[in-house]
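=== Structure Prediction Worksheet ===
Name of assembly: unnamed complex
Input type: mixed (protein and possibly other molecules)
Chain count: two
Listed entries:
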Amino acid sequence: MRKNIFRLALLLMAFAMLLTACKPAATETTTGSGTAATEAAATEAAATESAATEAQPEEFVFGMLLVGPYNDRGWSQAHYEAGLYVEENLPGARMIYLDRVNPADRPGTTPAQLAEELVAQGARLIIFNSDDMKDSSTEFAQAHPDIFVIMASGDQVWAEGNAYIPMDNMVNIMGRMEYGKMIAGCAAALTTQTGQIGYLGPLINDETRRLAASAYLGARYCWSEYLGNDPAALQFKVTWIGFWFNIPGVTADPTQVADDFFNTGYDVVISGIDTTEALTEASRLRAAGEQVWAIPYDFIGACEGADAVCLGVPYFNWGPAYLATIQSAINGTWTSSFQWNGPDWADINNLDTSAVGFVPGPALSPDASALLNQFIGELAGGLNLWTGPLNLQDGTPYLADGEIATDQQIWYLPQLLEGMQGQSVSGE
Amino acid sequence: MEGSKGAKLTAKTIKWISPLFQAAAFLLALSFTTLILLAVGAPPGQAYLNILKGAFGNTNSIANVLVVWAPLLLTTVGVLITFSAGLWNIGVEGQVTLGAIFTTWVLRLLQESALPPWLIILLAMLAGMLGGALWAALAGALKTFGGVNEIFGGLGLNFVATALTLWLIFGPWKRPGTGSMSGTLPFPETLWLPTLSGLRLSPWALGLALLAVVVVYLMLRGTRFGLRLKAVGKNMRAAYLLGVPTWQHMMASFLLCGLLAGLAGALQVTAVYHRLIPSISSGYGFLGLLVAMLVNYQAVWAVPVALFFAALNIGSIQLPIVLRLDSSLAGVLQGLLVLSVLLVEGARQQIMKRLRLSDESAPVEERP
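=== Predicted Assembly ===
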């Protein structure tokens, strides 16, 4: 029993130390206690000290907060890889990052607080990149005027925007995904056998509305101009699941929504959500012999593994904009700006120059592929589908005949467009 | 333990053995996690050290740990009350959410009014407690009058609470212009619970949480109500036959737990996020249930164990930053802890049983 009590004392000591140790140094001084855990801790403690990285004089550390896992094959991974791109192309640049930055995964923390953790590790520039970090990025930028801030997808420093807050240390960056979505819509229209295209939407806001509308504009154009069909015969339906990804019991189940589309004659589903249910579901049905296709979103590699059904993927390429902006922070040429970057029309898939791109998928037929290239060529030549006459979904005139939409009109699109089915505004 | 096999099983040894088992469970979880770390090629010692540094390295991080600790303590001691009555209040998560919703509601109603800010905050927090209690009452009513198991009722109500939050954020309470995952428009700084200067920690939140622990501890330990609650929890039929009004006690435990969970939600709004966000509960309800299970339903132990969980949450932030490790490790450690505690608890009961057989005269400890 005495032996046991002794052991117990040791265990409790180890336990108490882990619970209450206030300084890391405390762990180092307790090597004598003899339990495996503490011994390991102490040994490794010494290792950490020696491995601690000395900041190189020319090193520039930038921090990135990712809303999802860094390897989500979607939105977050696209940003993460852009960070790696900056590290590769900018000598001295080093990325530190924190993923799963959302209140569900990191209880009781705010993005501003987590950004401070990155600053404590040496970051001099912080990239926020999710809509739900908008307030936090403002709070952080205002509280730390000496730290550069990039808020991707935000519009706070857009002087002509609706939510303008001047902040010298902030840059907003967004890709003109409208083009990617138009191309996706065109690919869908060129492929559909039934004339019915489904759009798997996340939640309803300005951004998701304008992207769904862009897909519709692309689809309608290719449907009528290239295939010679009646625009009115094209069915384009948006179903919102209520969030960026599936939350059982809260959102509509995207697998179910995709399945409903496919079962009711919609043979192409364009995904607007962060995850790949549409692609998975299409693959499953295809294996059962059905003629269905899908188009994923966000990440250049999203088609992988779904060759039979993937028509291509519109993706973000944040690398060049991050590179230029971080470079300007280093050079001292930084100016607060709102950047809404389009594709490089010389080659929309040039990863060094194009902010958005579209990789055609293996399931796109050669004929469709040729027409799609023609469409991309027309867009490059100045074709603007955001040109009147266009009405909003309820019939309200949006653009008069020949009128070209301003950036503000597109960014803050108040409803879906006439001819689209689906809910325009949430919660009413 | 081998050494104690066949030994005289006195009350004193039992007192010693219990924490021994808990420590064993902790080490078991730690070694599992270490194995996982080794398997992915990460240095375990550095990982643990970074967690420690991240949680307790400086005043700021300690404050951040306490920011998590306060609401977690509230939900933990809340579910201790329902556990005492033999109830699995899974719905505590939704009760936190409703607390936050009610708090936001009152803040929205009164923020333009001429009332002094402290009064508005007070009213909002009371409303939060009320909201949590009402949501708990719903689960309680479903249980006592509808015959719906509180686990299923609670789960359902959790989903409803989340859906309600999303609906409010994107519908009636959406910020000017467009709904955003950012949540509702942040409240003016005058309506924030005051924090220690330069830190995110509100002493009020901390004080309220600690007060709640003391109250629940005393209530469960030293009051007639607490005793009756335990009687209901241990054997409802016997309690009923002995004249304890059973459903009233169950309902009361739901209400009290809801009050505390609602307060946690109120703190999330007034002290942490300053608005309503989609996952306002931060999972503290579920985490509180885990802590309550881990501490064997004893309020005193909730204090260090909840602190440990809070520290893990904040400390593990360092893992991806410094070591480029997947940050779900903290969750893995928490899950393993609970699993190994349950495992070791099973083993303990087996061993106790055997010891009891070998030594009939010994007093045998019963679990609460």
